[in-house]
Structures
1.
Amino acid sequence: MQPQLVGPRTGTGPACLGCRQRTPYSPIRNLIKLLYPRTFYFHFKNLHYANYRNDTFLCYEINEVDCGELVPLCQGIFRKEPLRTSLPGMDDRHAELCFLSWFHTRVLEVLSPSKEYKITWYVSWSPCCKCAEHVARFLTTHRNLSLVIFSSRLYYFNDPYYQCRLQRLFEAGGQLFAMDYPEFKMVWNKFVDNGGRSFRPWKKLTMNFRFQASTLKLILRSYYRNKGGFGSGSVTDDEVLGQMVSLNGLKKYFSEFTSARIKELSLKTWVKVTQRITYLCYKLEPYGDQNHLKGCLQNKKGKHAEILFIDEMRSLELSQERITCYLTWSPCPDCAQKLAAFKTDHPDLDLRVYVSRLYFHWWRKYQEGLCSLWRSGIRVAVMDLPQFTDCWRNFVSPQKPFRPWKKLEKNSRCLQRRLRRIQESWGLQDLINDFGNLQLGPSS
């Protein structure tokens, strides 16, 4: 188990979900006493990317702290409940919320407020944004309770919004860990109907634990960097930020940002291309002495990275900031229209978009989308060596030099020529020439 940084307890905040609503706990499922071995191995396997594992299991232990010793009180298992049992105002009832509701109606009233209690969770996924907020309020409201959370996997660990919610939970006093071999073995022995069989670790368990633990450590370190609580450490601010918003390492960067030329596609190739993930890295550089903001977004189910970027920017008070975006693909027509509308709503904003590849540039509607960006005042250009280097330094590895791949500049020049032909065919060359008088490269 990795060493844990101690998170401070926050001041008095909003009451927790159970204290506000006092909704009786009435699960529609029978209480889970033990997990099936197949369920445990499928849902608790600590993979980097666990597809089709949409359910969450929470194994808990409640102990009373008596003269420094832990006295076991109870233990059990919760899982996510269907939509029809949701609490008012909630999208669904996750395992964490099931535990909080059950704890308030069945346990809290019989516990002595003068004694301390330790709650330990072993969860297949770390809490989502809403659950992390409610658990943080739960800890802030009930000061005699401590919570230790062991997570098999981190939920959307690359998303800055989810990172902030984990930091909020950590700030409220929650102790966050990644599950290692001892925790998996303990869950197997206590919460699985194992039939007397011993726990058999899966391949790469330790390697995946190191990945989860190091990622969690970076997220929690970032909290102290923002609060100024680390002082001068061996890891620099830029290095922590660069690793937090990195595109999951160097391999991901090379595979997603390679500026290859794309010709017309067959149906089979179409399916492969349209399933690729789009990444959007952005830097917001405000005028004055304010802090710069960086982030990295990717497509999610139902929302493109550009829409997530617009939602995030609209939550800020923008005026004359300069925003530089690096995209693995040029925007689709719908995203281009919404980016243009966003720029129209913020006329003083200096928005620059660099794309690594052009997305279906031979189709008229996609060309119309690019034209809408130019007409709105957004400067769109193809990434070349300076932009790839700047993206690498800010979002991947600030300590290591960028090594360009073969034919990077040649492919970039081909895409730039194609972009110019699109501009000329739509009669936008005069507008683009005005943009050309301004600096399009990354700021020094």
Note: The longest strand covers residues 69-79.
2.
Amino acid sequence: MESYALLLGAMLSAGTVLAIAALGLLINEKAGIVNLGAEGMMLCAAIGGFAAYVHTHNAWIGFAAGMAVGALLAGLFGVLVIWLNTNQYATGLALSLFGVGFSAFVGINYVQAKAPGGMAFAIPVLGDIPFIGPALFRHHPLVYFAVALTFALIWFLYRTRAGLVLRSVGESPESAHALGYPVRRIRLMAVMAGGALCGLAGAYLSVVYTGLWVENMVAGRGWIALALTTFATWRPLRVLLGAYLFGGVTQLGFHLQSVGVDVPSQFLAMMPYVATIVVLALISRNPAFIRVNMPASIGKPFYPGS
């Protein structure tokens, strides 16, 4: 039973990285912007957050540094695609490639560095309950933040005027512009908010989840987070559940090895990506369902003068 509790706990921790990043990308896409640069932003934020943590010995400063790096890169991306009308997909890919190279260059001096100290967290009393305690109540606060963020985003998007405006910008920016809303500024704020969340996910990965910096350590999680938004048909709660599903797939192989099942390491490495392909193939069988839930102007440039 203890091994299953540890598996459930590892699934939640691994899924948190994907959930926070995917929720950030969801905000982008609700505003009509597709950012394929999540992988690069997360890598730059991972080294930025880890470096800040190493020098300050304060994990929260590391998280803030990661969010700042993610927001800065997303802001640059936003200026290019929103004001200069560069192609969103090409610009996002360029940002991702830049992040891979830049993070490797900046992180050379931090490859051997270790986090200032191990962090152990447990909710008093609840953390001591057999099975439930190790599975649910011994996690870093950001694990619970991801859950709270999901419900906060649901409330914001579907219960507030600001959320309605954001969704209208993603559905019909021309109509929103005609009503007097600053479409470009709204899209830029959404892109930077999404970038900050991707940055937080990257910093969590290096500061808490692994406690070290390794070149290209995001290892495709940015692409999986991007696929999660489609898998979840742009709904926050489904993003959270999908993140935990993929987190479970990531950890399942290690659990099998721990109980004596011989699983090749190459198979473990490919499992999350195979799961991503399978899930996307399954939901693609019903394109009408995707079109109904997809923001109508996603990926399309907006020209306010037209």
Note: The radius of gyration is 19 Å.
3.
Amino acid sequence: MYLGLDLGTSGLRGLLVSEDGTVVGDATKSYDVQSPKSGWAEQDPAVWVGACLGVLSKLATGFPAEYRALKGIGVAGHMHGATMLDHSGKVIRPCILWNDTRAAKEAAELDETPGFRELSGNIVFPGFTAPKLLWMARNEPENYALVSKVLLPKDYLVFWLTGEMSSEMSDASGTSWLNVEERAWSEILINGSGMRRDQLPDVVEGSDVVGQLSVERAQQIGLSTDVSVVAGAADNAAAACGVGAFEEGQGFVSLGTSGVILAAKDRYAPDPSTAVHTFCHAMPMKWYQMGVILSATDSLNWLADNLGHSPEELADLLPDKPFGPGAVRFLPYLSGERTPHNDANTGGAFLGLSRGSDQAALVQAVMEGVSFALRDCLEALHSTGTSLGSALVIGGGSKSAFWVQTLANTLGITLHLPAKGDFGASMGAARLAMIGAGGLSPQEVMVPAAIEVEIKPDRVLTDAYDVSYRAYKQTYEAIKDLP
């Protein structure tokens, strides 16, 4: 048996998987994000530990025989978070998360530094890790002086499980400290952001075994110290492993808290000017490119909070099939935007409201606005020479038939819903454990997901969505500099 842990922004999932890939157990534990100031997003790593203990307890109780048969654990997690530890391994302050924009000024400074884009293969975005440490040096010098090691969120869980500090290629790619082409830390990038190499753990591949469960942890969670823990992967790289997207031309669209269009690559081919991310994949000598929007289902969650309904209740206001673009336009820039704008300061907006704009119209506008933002990502990928003729669609938003069909109409490509539900990142983490701890080959493990539903663009409506998308693009240009 193998366990995949997925450390998400709003909760942790654990997936028990047998060697043949069958899911035998599933457990989740939710938690919140703290925003002490506007634009800030933080979590105390103790919350992750508590959630992990809760998930493991549920699995041990619900699936005792399978749980005791664990051979390996893999961990996936949200990227870019800065988890700072002192010399004793104690957390210094809450982790600064991927959607935190406080370091926009520092990111711009590093991005303008000669060599940063060339070595890292990416724009230095405000959510990346390096600018957060530079912000901390300037604004929290007493905390910064204590920093002995910086771990990414899922790497902190690996440390908690094993007592060993590590990072791995796919996650480290989003720090602005990694030479993504050479798959190694760059002294130039590290020193250029004011850090030292000894403040970062060694970087390894996703299926590499970091260590065994420590004696303390094994006793606490009721397992043997013979259980191996692999390095794991960043959430989107893990999701790609979970659905078998690691060969050139394979990819997916994720309607999660953030939105992603990802395409696997056999070679390193960056184009930072497009604001497309070029990162190492979790498998050796594989890369991937992706466009990222910061508020996908988070936009619907925001609307639900303000209307006093659940996201599911709002989604149910719409039919299964769209009838064409709505009159209300929504810009989903609630936390700024990455691809293609790299704009931490822009804000979201509703346009075209009238007295006839009811809740269903607002929900439709949100789903269309997120779809148009993902079309921006696809256009940016195309500009780098990367193309997708079809893609899997995963994430919580994929449960809405209206949203998925709107997305297909907007992107103009065929989308596929996987047959076994949304187990992408946790399944990918388990698969990496099968390779590293179980000795299975990638060809045996990284098989494509079975397809349950195929969603083709509605050719009667695609022209209308294209016109609406063009208007959406012009809207951003018109309002981006408004105070």
Note: Residues 2-231 form a domain with the Nucleotidyltransferase; domain 5 fold (CATH 3.30.420.40).
4.
Amino acid sequence: MENHLIASMLAATIVSGTPLILVAMGELVTEKAGVLNLGAEGMMSIGAVTAFAVALSGGGPVLAVLAGMAAACVMALAFGFLTLTMMANQVASGLALALFGVGLAAFIGKPFESTPLPMIAPVPVPLLEHIPVLGPALFNQQAMVYLSWAIVAAVLYFLYRSRWGLVLRAVGESPSSAHAVGYRVITLRYAAVAFGGAMAGMGGAFISVFYTPLWAEGMVAGRGWIALALVVFATWRPLRVVLGAYLFGGVMIAQLFVQGSGVQLDMPAQLMSSLPYIATIAVLVLISRNAHTIRLHSPASLGQPFRPDA
């Protein structure tokens, strides 16, 4: 019984951390290109409501996820047009995108509230699912969880083992130097911004179609902001981002298990609900307390505009 409880908590932790991993991987690639997009919360919300609407209309989970990715990608490209082409301030534009996306999603989603979708069954991995404790937790998950692991591996390979990953990081470090040797800095940054938007949409779609298959206003619940914090506090390293995402998921699931067990704690329910956010930020701040390490891994041109010479 104890093993079953541990396996259930581990499985729930992984599922809870999955949307953070998806969004944070997209934001990491965006920031590695030197672009700071603070609109993850808005893009996630738009991706969530779009995916839910498509799934509710009978489009199926795959089409729903693709629709959510496309909708968020359009928003990201609008942000790219403002900041990369029109040279608007990236921080202000990102904040506006976050606020606009959350508000628009709430407006679009009004007709879909209180209408649940069918639960999507997990996809067990033969043989591996029977490993004690870890098997049910790691190898009896929904397909999107496995996909998140593949995306982490792909981002790692792209950034640190591929030529174009090296070029992207060079653009984030010194766009003028990259432009001088013939690379299209703005085009590469647009591609990174589009990828970040698509990943945010995928994270939102996971929440509304797979994690809690329904639509409710505010269901993204700050995960976009947590994903942004993960990237910075993990010092732009993918594996640390994964660790932070599962840390957040673990604390969230732990407080839900405590509340569901009926244990009476002498603290307000609101404080209990805030513990995952507090714990994640606190631990990641401790991990990244070395300012030299942050400066070493931070893209040098992050948030700075670049205009190619005519």
Note: The first strand starts at residue 123 and ends at 124.
